[in-house]
């Protein structure tokens, strides 16, 4: 995978970064974080301008967020059917809806970089739930700023240890995502327990 990402960035440069970050925000399984790390490393070696790498990744992420929000707003029924076709997608979309309802704009912000696997589904859920576009956009811009700066910056600073940084970032992302799922399940079980107790009473 790493060799393929290197080749894509070396061949297509910033255009590849734009395309991959855009697609990742629409739940397409592409290695966006690894691409940004690689883009940062290429910038550190002088093969690509740092500004070009950062702006391409940032522009792709923001465009993907906006597209996902608009899809959710205009195609809510279709998205529900699309998610139900696979159990994993349905679970992620359900957690995204809960995140938007519970945390609002902060849920959008955190799903850009802290729990990025939820990000695309939060885009859909925010649109389907009729979150105000201006509010969504402000939190999206803030979150994507952190995501792009974090990964491009790590690639730039640790270009000589890119593989180790990529593995660490993947492990950390998986750990955070797992913790969020566990907390979410805990809240759900507690809620169900309370509801069950009320029914019994």
TrEMBL record:
Main location: membrane
Alphabetic keyword roster: Cell membrane, Membrane, Transmembrane, Transmembrane helix
Pfam family, one: VTT_dom
Name of the protein in question: DedA family protein
Membrane-spanning ranges: 6-28, 138-159, 165-189
GO CC terms: plasma membrane
Family: Belongs to the DedA family.
Taxonomy, superkingdom: Bacteria
Domain VTT: 30-156
Phylogenetic lineage: Bacteria, Pseudomonadati, Pseudomonadota, Gammaproteobacteria, Oceanospirillales
Subcellular location: Cell membrane
Membrane topology reported for the UniProt record: Multi-pass membrane protein
């Amino acid at each position: 995978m790493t060799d393929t990402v290197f080749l894509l960035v070396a061949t297509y440069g910033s255009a590849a970064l734009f395309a991959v970050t855009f697609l990742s925000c629409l739940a397409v399984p592409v290695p966006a974080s690894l691409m940004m790390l690689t883009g940062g490393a290429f910038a550190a070696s002088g093969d690509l301008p740092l500004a070009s790498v950062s702006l391409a990744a940032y522009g792709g992420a923001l465009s993907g967020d906006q597209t996902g929000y608009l899809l959710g707003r205009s195609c809510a029924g279709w998205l529900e059917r699309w998610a139900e076709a696979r159990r994993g997608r349905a679970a992620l979309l359900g957690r995204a809806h809960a995140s938007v309802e519970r945390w609002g704009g902060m849920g959008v912000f955190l799903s850009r970089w802290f729990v990025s696997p939820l990000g695309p589904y939060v885009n859909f859920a925010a649109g389907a739930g009729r979150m105000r576009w201006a509010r969504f956009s402000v939190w999206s811009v803030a979150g994507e700023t952190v995501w792009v700066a974090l990964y491009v910056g790590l690639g730039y600073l640790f270009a000589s240890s890119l593989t180790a940084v990529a593995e660490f970032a993947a492990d950390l992302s998986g750990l955070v995502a797992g913790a969020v799922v566990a907390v979410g399940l805990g809240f759900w079980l507690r809620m169900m327990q309370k509801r069950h107790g009320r029914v019994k009473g």
